[in-house]
Amino acid sequence: MPASPAEEKMGLIINACRTGNRKAQETLYQHYFSYGLSIALRYGHDREEARDILQEGFYKVFSGLDHYDPALPFKTWLRRVLINAAIDYLRRYKRRPEELSEDLPPASNSHNDGWEHLQYDDVLAAVCQLSPAYRLVFNLYAIEGFRHREIAEKLSISEGTSKSNYAKARLQLQQYLKNKGIDQSNWYER
Questions:
Q1: Residue 185 to residue 114: CA distance in whole angstroms
Q2: How far apart are CA 89 and CA 148, in angstroms?
Q3: Which residue among 28, 90, 100, 177 is the one 20 to 30 A from 73 at the CA level?
């Protein structure tokens, strides 16, 4: 199936970026800025930190375009690069070993993950309240869809630590939402 005119244009922009064309890089950056920021906001504690993550991510995009396979969707590759940039950023600046624990919290009777009942801003505010280590595991598992084994490999932690951090993040989110008066009684377990 032939590429659409928009896909062809983006392919030309990406090829120009590979040659170091600053105008093409600016165009690509502007085109994917909102998408990239939406990813970075899930990992950063605030907008400023998210912008730092986004800047590092786009630096990696522009310096790593030779690794992009044009036969695959660019947006998927960009997402992976931005997630890895967020992980690298948090490892470098935010990871606190005492937050990485394999102790599982007690089971909760409230069921969680009914995020579709909330507005995006509510979810983002709640997730931003988590510690960096919990937020990272929560995002990778609940939002990005990674398995605990994959998360453990990416973060150089055990699978049990990944599960524990996710469980603790869920409990903290439940408490945060409860404190905000958001009813969770009709939510389901993932």
A1: 10
A2: 20
A3: 90
Q: Which domains does the chain have, with CATH numbers?
A: 5-93 (1.10.1740.10), 97-179 (1.10.10.10)
53 CB-near residues (< 8 Å, 6+ apart): 40, 43, 44, 82, 85, 86, 89
In sequence order, the 6+-apart residues with CB closer than 8 A to the CB of 115 are 123, 142
Alpha-carbon radius of gyration of the chain: 19
Q: Spell 143-158 as b/e; 16+ CB within 10 A means b.
A: ebebebeebbebbebe
> What amino acid occupies position 48?
E
Distance CA 10, CA 31 (A): 10
Q: How many CA atoms lie within 13 A of 80 on its CB side?
A: 11
> Model-level pTM?
0.73
- Per-residue model confidence as pLDDT tens digits over 97-139: 334 444 444 334 333 444 445 566 777 788 888 888 899 999 9
Report the C-alpha gap between 96 and 150 in whole angstroms.
20
Which residue carries 């997630």 as its tokens?
Answer: 83
Contact 117, 187 (CB under 8 A): yes
- Which tokens is 132 given? 């960096």
